[in-house]
Structures are given as C-alpha cells and as structure tokens.
From TrEMBL:
Taxonomic source organism: Paramormyrops kingsleyae
Membrane topology of this protein: Multi-pass membrane protein
Protein name listed in UniProt: Uroplakin-1b
One GO CC annotation: membrane
A matching Pfam family: Tetraspanin
InterPro entries: Tetraspanin/Peripherin, Tetraspanin_EC2_sf
Subcellular location: Membrane
Annotated TM spans: 12-39, 59-82, 89-111, 237-257
Gene3D superfamilies tied to this protein: Tetraspanin
Amino acid sequence: MSSQTNFEMRLLQAILLWGNFVIMCCGIALMAMCIFFVYDRDHLHVLVYYTGSDSIWRAAWIGIFTGFALFCVAAYAMYAIMKEKKMPILVYIILMMIIFAFEMASAITAATHEDWFGPEIFLTEMLQKYDKQVLPSNTNEMNQIQEITNSWNQLMTQKSCCGVNGPQDWVTYNSSFRQLYSDASYPWPRQCCQQDAMGGVVQLQGCQIGVNPYLSTTGCYAYIAGPIMTQGLAVSWFGFAILCWVFLVLLGMMFYYTQVD
C-alpha cells in the first residue's frame, strides 16, 4: 500500500470514528429525551391511554431502545474500524440498518400523532367515564373510572381549568357526571371552582352560578395536547435528524467495507 493510499485510509478511518462518536452522543441524547417523555411529569398518560391512542408513548419507548442501541453499536463501530476486517464491519452495517428501521418507525409514529389528539376524543372520554357509577363486581372498569376521574381532578385543580373546552362542556352535553348531579346543584365538578391553599372551594355559590373568578372558565385541552404534541414532535424531528446522520455514516462504512481485506 502506497503512502498516499495509506494516508487516505487513515483519513477515512478518522472521519468514520468521529461520525460514530457523534452517533454515540446522539444515542444518549435521544434516550434522555424519550425517558423525559415517558416519565410523564404532567400526568397525562392515563387520559391518553384510555382513549386508545397512546401510540406516542410506544414510540418513545422504542426511542429509548434505539438510543441505547445506537450508543452500543456506534461504540462497537470504533472497534470494527480499527480492526480493519470485513466481518466486524458487516456486523455493524447489519445491526445499524435494523436500528435505523426501528427509529424510523418511532419517528414517523411520533410525527403523525397530532392527528389523533383532537379535543373530541378527550371530550368523549370525559363525558362517558368521569365519575361514572359502575357495579362493584366490575373491578377493571372501576379502576379505569377511578384513574380517569383522579387524573381529570388533578389536571383541573393544578391548571385551574375546567372540562375540555370549558365549563360549558358539563352543561351542553349529557354525561355520567350529569346523571349523578342536577344542573342546579352541581353544574360542573368542584375542581372547576377556585380553591384556597387548603384545597377548599373559595366561594361555592359563586362557582355554581358561573361567576368569574370563582369558576375556571378555561378549557383543559391546551394543557393536555400542548405538552404531548410539543414533546412528541421533539422526539420525532430529533429522531429524523439522527437518521440523516446515521445514513451518511452508514454510506461511509459501506465504502470502508469495500476497502478492507
């Protein structure tokens, strides 16, 4: 091998080593981002899960797996590059192509989830399942109703919001809540009322007749869809950016494969 060819090979190795080091860093970042998403600090998973449209969480779990896999395989690539043997490089190429396919699925799912989270899907869930009375023998449904009711109560209390679009949801539509309470006594849940530091209602009568500020007039939809869409799009577009870089490094590794013995 001439000195010129040897220099070009070493330069190619250096570029590929650097490229895979970047993939390692991206894998750690992707894993951290997806862990932050599935941690669910806004406690929205229950509300999304029972709508049957929780694929965004599955995409995030795939992102955790692919992030860890990218880190491990890119680290292995450094060994394969320095070994200068076809078999380790071929193993790297096959593994990275499998990871590429998984991350592509994750990124596409996360990018298209926005179409699944219209206000109607959460409105239907709230009206049908919030505070619904079921037979004690139906344990699974009881647990589901309890989780949904607690999640809505927590959301409305913490964000000072009411319903999906506003308190009018409880009055305009028929609901399980309306079957328990009359419009005159409880037009909407007490969690829609302004509360003091101890969790008590500040002015119950003012809330019942809809006097501002004793009643939260803002809907909760923005507090549900906003964080999910923002974090989901971050996971998807960061995933697409990583895939673009991985594609370039893969091409370089394929060329390197043809140059070694």
